[in-house]
Amino acid sequence: MANTRFLWSGSSQYTGNTIEAFITLKSSNTKTGNIPQITILPKNIKPTDALKTGQDADVCGNCPLRPKLFNPDTHDKACYVNCGFAPNAIARSKSITDFQPKSIFNVIRIGAYGDGASVEKKALLKMVSLAKKVLNYTHAWADKKFNYLKAFSMASVHSIEEKIKAQKLGFRTFRTVRFACSKLDQDEIVCPNFTRSITCEACKLCVGNQVKAKNIVIPSH
To answer: What is the C-alpha separation between 142 and 219, in angstroms, rounded?
Structure first.
């Protein structure tokens, strides 16, 4: 894949198994805009197979949106990422070369697939340093080990109760709701992409405490 480069390989902070991170330099994602995207994958297994066996825990931990953990009684939709596309394509590619940074990006997205918390702290902070602003979301916000993520990560939450807990730990929050007309707290706004089709590249609100801004709410997607 000419557009994708290898970034890092090391131990998953969730399971201890080997995982890998890749950066795709250009994106056709209409929501995020054309920004570099970092994908985190279990090593030596096709991502779609990892979903079936539960090895996606290597990069997604205890995320409640994982297929093995998803409960329709408590969450509206399972993870939106289709591993049959980009993740599988990256995993099976034999032509990916190492990434050689030439300049600092304006904004990157960590976790096009996979939770940044799965990456060793030193390596993740190096990825963060690749850009002026970092889009990152984590379901690991409640674990004290990962509290450092609040500096640049949104806590992915699915209820007001979770929102309150995450904010007490210092995180800004990204809350999913069932309906676009759901009631918001005073410190929340609906994702500008949903309301005005503004790309993440232009918006840059989902960068944790890299900015002072309201928390984000979005209908389940």
So the answer is: 22
Whole-number Å distance between alpha carbons of 167 and 110: 21
CB 60 within 8 A of CB 43: no
Among the listed residues 155, 147, 195, the one whose alpha carbon sits nearest the alpha carbon of residue 172: 155
The reported pLDDT for the residue numbered 1 is 63
> What local confidence, expressed as pLDDT, does residue 72 receive?
87
Spell out the SS3 assignment of the chain: CCCEEEEEEEECCCCCCEEEEEEECCCCCCCCCCCCEEEEEECCCCHHHHHHHCCCHHHHCCCCCCCCCCCCCCCCCCCCCCCCCHHHHHHHCCCCEECCCCCCEEEEEEEEECCHHHCCHHHHHHHHCCEEEEEEEECCCCCHHHHHHHHCCEEEECCHHHHHHHHHCCCEEEEEECCCCCCCCCCEEECHHHHHCCCHHHHCCCCHHHCCCCEEEEECC
With 0-12 CB in 10 A as exposed, 13-18 as middle and 19+ as buried, what is 198? Answer: middle
Spell out a b/e string for 152-181, using b for 16 or more CB atoms within 10 Å of the CB, else e: bbbbbbbeeebbebbbeeebbbbbbbeeee
Token pair for residue 16? Answer: 């201890």
Confidence (pLDDT) at 94: 86
Residue 90 phi/psi, 5-degree rounding, is -65, -45
Give the residue ranges of the chain where pLDDT is below 70.
1, 179-181, 221
